[in-house]
Design brief:
single chain, 59 residues, alpha+beta, 2 helices, 34% helix, 14% strand, globular
Length: 59
């Protein structure tokens, strides 16, 4: 497993994972449209001293 700094090429997988956890594990009726920050990770979370990391295994 590798810990990497988020790159836009992983956007779909990150969104799918987050939505799965919110909906299936926590039972939240939430949509992507309710969380526009997921479409703007670099401009929201990777500014200043902030960052967003992902764990990647087998690509």
């Amino acid at each position: 497993m590798q810990i990497l700094t988020y790159q836009p090429q992983y956007q779909t997988q990150v969104i799918d994972l987050i939505l799965y956890i919110q909906r299936e594990e926590f039972g939240l009726p939430i949509r992507l449209e309710d969380q526009p920050d997921l479409l703007s990770i670099p401009t929201i979370y990777q500014q200043g001293n902030g960052n967003f990391w992902i764990a990647v295994e087998n690509d």
